[in-house]
UniProtKB/TrEMBL annotation:
One of its GO terms (molecular function) is hydrolase activity. Residues 1-229 form the AB hydrolase-1 domain. One of its GO terms (cellular component) is membrane. This is Alpha/beta hydrolase. Keywords: Hydrolase. It comes from the Bacteria.
Length: 248
């Protein structure tokens, strides 16, 4: 289970409690995120796919079911393209990677938001609250408040420069590495899950991803924003279970 940009293993704990009885779960914090180390590395979906491939080899994991959320979906797509033998199936929840070029976002990120040291030009604690409100869609959801407190505590601590570096590099790499043009090469069953009110990954990007997936890929929508891993856990788990059951 692979988290998204700025996320951590905490994002999957609500789902994990419902899946752990039937599955052995591997829920890492990617390098540069959460509790993991944050060294000077080329963060981004392609890099993370290499890291996860090596981690799977080290742990003796073969042909697993891989689930990725947001950037994690882009990472898992990249893994399926580069190391198809590792995947028995793929679940992409509100995945990134369906943009058609970087448009103006890369320039805005690099010229406006980020300085030459790959640090944010400005940062205030209220920005965390604003960001979590946008990604959740439902600002009153209890999980949003808990996530806001957890992220704020980490970003107000001594790791903030390292978090900024990994966030900036990953954000640029997301824009530089769209995966949709190659998705027709995927050889494993795919479940694509969309949030109907997602303000982070627009519907056109989900449509672009799905259009390139091989025949037989499954596309489901949930009435939520970008964070069904928190806001629609029973429904999302039900989709995942039904998808995996159909593979038996």
């Amino acid at each position: 289970m692979v988290h998204g940009l700025g996320g951590s293993c905490h994002d999957f704990l609500p789902m994990a409690s419902r899946l752990a009885d039937d599955f052995s779960l591997l829920i890492p914090d990617l390098p540069g995120s959460g509790y993991s180390d944050k060294p000077d590395l080329p963060y981004g979906p392609g890099f993370y796919a290499q890291v996860l491939s090596q981690a799977a080899k080290n742990l003796g994991v073969e042909r697993a079911h891989w689930l990725g959320h947001s950037m994690g979906g882009q990472v898992v797509f990249s893994l399926a393209l580069e190391r198809p033998g590792l995947l028995r199936s793929l679940v992409a929840v509100c995945p990134a990677g369906g943009h058609d070029g970087a448009s103006g976002w890369k320039g805005f990120l690099e010229k406006v938001l980020v300085n030459k040291n790959q640090r944010l030009r400005f940062f205030e604690p209220w920005m965390i609250n604003l960001s979590t409100r946008a990604i959740f869609g439902d600002p009153r959801h209890p999980a949003r408040l808990e996530l806001t407190r957890r992220v704020r505590a980490q970003w107000m601590g001594p790791e903030r420069p390292l978090l900024e570096r990994s966030l900036v590099r990953s954000g640029v790499a997301i824009l530089d590495q769209p995966v949709w043009p190659r998705l027709h090469e995927i050889q494993t069953p795919v479940l694509l899950v969309q949030g109907e009110q997602d303000q982070v990954v627009p519907p056109v990007e989900i449509q672009r991803l799905y259009a390139q997936l091989p025949t037989g890929a499954r596309w489901e929508s949930l009435p939520c924003g970008h964070m069904p891993v928190y806001t629609m856990v029973p429904e999302l788990v039900s989709l995942v279970r039904d998808f995996l059951k159909g593979l038996d």
